[in-house]
Amino acid sequence: MEPLQIADKIKEKFPDEVLNVKEFRGQASVILKKDRILEICRHLHDDPDLYFDYLVDVCGVDYAGKKEKRFEVVYHLYSIKHRHSVRLKAEVSESAPEIDSVTAVWDGANWHERECYDMFGIIFSGHPDFRRILMPEDWEGHPLRKDYPVKGTEKEWPGFKAVLNRAKRFKEFEWQE
Known about the structure:
Number of domains: 1
CATH superfamily: NADH:ubiquinone oxidoreductase Nqo5 subunit
Mean pLDDT: 90
CATH class: Alpha Beta
Shape: elongated
Helix content: 10-25%
Distance between the termini: 60 Å
Structural class: alpha/beta
């Protein structure tokens, strides 16, 4: 099935949820309201004509100051059986950066959603193991936000000295020639 045909099927099933469809170089992006993302993803997974059984990626985008809703959560879906793909984009506001987790549909969303939270601060409601994955638990801020300081935070991360001490302890195990 062609990407725009897939977008049309989504518009047909969820007409009030589709904000826009964009096509570029044979790829379709379906821009959605965030409120029914789990239901939409469940439909795309379960519909035998679509059967999006593989979640390629979930990532965040920060449009600080360029769009009314600051963030987008982007889902890249692929059907191994039908060999077709689609991209979903759900807009998320800065004041309430929250969207439903799709881990109930694809287990593989688990780490992707945690990374998206870690880097952008987008909260995935209903996530089974919602904690940081790339940054330490006590890290302040979200490094891929446009307003995050380029050189990092002004104060030193509390765990930095512990990491340095651990590295010194392992120095004795380095290869000596």
